[in-house]
Amino acid sequence: MGFAIDRHSPVPAWQQLASQLRAHIATLAPQDMIPSTQELVKETGLAIGTIQKAVSALKAEGLVYAVSGRGTFKR
Amino acid sequence: MGFAIDRHSPVPAWQQLASQLRAHIATLAPQDMIPSTQELVKETGLAIGTIQKAVSALKAEGLVYAVSGRGTFKR
DNA sequence: ATGCATTTGTTCGTATGTATG
DNA sequence: GCATACATACGAACAAATGCA
Q1: What is the pLDDT of residue A1?
Q2: Residue A9: helix, strand or coil by DSSP?
Q3: pTM here?
C-alpha cells in the first residue's frame, strides 16, 4: 500500500496518514475494508494512538465506519 | 462546575464528559472559555488523553474552537 | 459450545513541542 | 524568561465484539 510518514514534515504524522488513507479510500468500493490498526502500525512505524487518531478523523468525516471485531470499512 | 464521571456506567467516560460539557457550553456566551484541560483533569480525575478526546469531539462538532496557548472557547 | 485470533474501543500515564500573554 | 494551555506522539493494558476452527 505504501503508507509512508515524513517525520521531519511540519505536518503532523496523524494528518499525513489521514491524507494518505483518504487517497487510498478513494480507490475502494463501498464496504471495502481499510488496513487494520496493526497493519498500519507495521507499515508506518507510528504508535497505535497516532493511527487511531488518523482513523478517527476519517470516521468523523463520515468517510468510513468501524465495526468492532471486524474492521473499518468505506461507507 | 461539578463535572462528575460515573466509572461504573457503560457509557465511556469521555462521552459522559462530552455530554456534560455540551450542557455547560449551552449556558455560555460565544467566546466564553471552557475549563482548561488541567482543570478538567482535577475535577474529573480522568487522564489527560481522556479529557482531550472529549474536547476533540466538541471541536469536531464545531461547538468550540481551541487557541493554543490561550484556551478553548465557545464558538 | 468452547476456545482462539483478530480487530476496534477505552483508559491510563508520560514526554516533548508550540503558541500565547 | 516564565507560566499557562493546547497539540503531538509514544507505549501499554484491558475490554468487547466478531469470525472461525
Answers
A1: 76
A2: coil
A3: 0.94
